[in-house]
Amino acid sequence: MSGLLDELYRLQERIRFVQSRERERDTVPAELTEVDRAFREKLEAVQRLKQRLLEAEVEHRRASAELADQQEKQKKYQAQLRNVQSSREYSAVLNEMDGVEKQIRASEDKVLGLEEELETSREDLQKREKNLPLETQEHEEKMKDWRAAQRLINEELQKAQREILEIEARMRPRELAEFRRLIEKKGGLAVVRVVNNSCSACHVKVRPAAMQVLKAGSEIIYCDSCRRILYYDSNNP
Ligand SMILES: [Zn+2]
Fold first, then answer.
1. CA 161 to ligand 1 centroid distance, Å
2. What is the pTM for the complete model shown?
């Protein structure tokens, strides 16, 4: 039984180690957050610009097609105007022409605006893309030490994860499932040491009878108060 408790305690320690190191690895250090944010912003700006260019190109094609349609209509009305039979018909066609001319002016403005936007956006994108390789290189240079630290953490994590798998492979599936459930429920602390005859998690005294069982190491004892598994380390009481 004490063998099992030793394993559980070690397993919990390794699980907690992995969690805290993963957090560390995934948290950009304070002195680099601004550098990292500024670089990400540059990458995102390029992406946004590309996206907007695609949209503006579609809008431009659509507006140009609309303008062509309206110009067709205008020609049709001009032809009609030459063949009108009455003054009533004449003013009706004239009225239609007025309308279509207004639409043409609006479409021309739109097409022109989009052409200007496309031109400046393409220039902007070109400039940004030209600078990006050097900026990326400079950024990686600033992040170099941090990347190296991340690689070291990853190596530690691999080792710890291997050990977790080894311990788990030695455990019975039912015991392992129970332990995983408990560690989840108890905020990462399922097995806690007994220090000065008390539970080190909630500091409630362990009953003398339970202390005796613990020292004998013959069965699993839970804390009366917080219901965690108690661990008595005879080498380090
Ligand atoms: Zn307790």
1. 28
2. 0.63
